[in-house]
What does this fold into?
Amino acid sequence: MLNSRSKSALWRPWTPITQQADSMRIVEAQGNRVRDAGGTWYLDGISGVLNASCGHGHPRLVEAATRQFQQLVHYDPMVSSHDPAETLTARLAEILPGELNETCLLNSGSEATEAALRIALQYWRNLGESRNRVITFEAAYHGSTFLAQQLSGLPFTVSEWTPPFPIDHVSLPASPRAVRTEEGADELIALFARALEAGPPAAAVMVEPLLGLGGCVVLPAGFLARLRRLCDEHGALLILDEVFCGFGRTGRMFGFEHDGITPDIVTMSKGISGGYLPLAAVTVTSPIKESFVREPVAQGLRYGHTTGGHAVASAVANAVLDVMADEKLVENSAAQGATLLDGLRQLEPSPVITDVRGLGLVVAIEADSPESAAAIATASARAGVMMRHERGVVRIAPPLTITTDETAEMLQKIGAAVETAAEARR
Ligand SMILES: Cc1ncc(COP(=O)(O)O)c(C=O)c1O
It folds into this structure.
């Protein structure tokens, strides 16, 4: 047990060395609230690591994990499959559209990105075509492994190493607010068209339905449908990164459903297991999987991890799907998200706010400066709402189980925090 004088041996990720000691310590979480070591309870405005979509300590998820722990913890996925993984992959095939039927189970969102790209690039080789160029958003975030990190052009992720294949980044043509307009949408799609036309044929275009870590940028309505058409015209695969948006976060089961499209490959993590255990998935269409019969070395996927598709994590994911259906969490995400967005938009006249945007239960306040964003997040934590801020953007993404009363409480406390931040600037 650490006492207040012990020096922590924990090296926290994505945190400057000089700020390692500044963290709070969360010791308990129940429902939509978390408690720190000092005994203060907070409304969880960030769902753990943006993954506790069913809230904390949900009895049905705890029970599903306990039952599976007692029956079979895990077994070598190369030697045997197990019921939880078989059931989960069959259920994913049911809820995903079209021919998205074939799923590989992994541990993290970054691994899902890694697998999706290996599959996409190998697919073209299986077909005898030498496509290997990948197009992504500059403000994308697809993970932090060596390869996944290179897909992003965000300044804080920039890698000093050369990627193993050409990656072209598309920058946002305008501010997040302007990009949501009709003109912004036209400019954005024109940039993707140019990226697809320039250079050798692209193997794949990989995008998030909403640019999460890149500033919570809500993409214009219809953008994904237009991008789907562009990819078809150029023969490129469309990979949708649903790691953050999937499983109800945007008010639909998957973010791409807002545009009614079917991607070729979908990556998932976070909400898939409600954050209770590490789990990720990459689902591809049947023709993509079938092409691997022609894979020259192994006739299959030369990729996988010891704990990929862990039996207990998969059992929890099956229970997550049951809880989401029984508690109507996708519907709740849409309804509470709309209330949250409407309420926060009332704050837009504040001098410290430049934009409020969101989709379902992911809502962002863009502040006039990183300092104002930090001031809003700090004041909000003092008032009892946990939020996260990156550069000038404060992100609010509570569990999908949030109630009407809790949404009202959150709005009232965030409103007071914005007022405090504005006063401090005067
Ligand atoms: C859209 C998106 N893709 C991929 C990842 C990487 O997932 P992980 O942190 O589980 O590796 C994240 C993580 O935040 C993400 O938001």
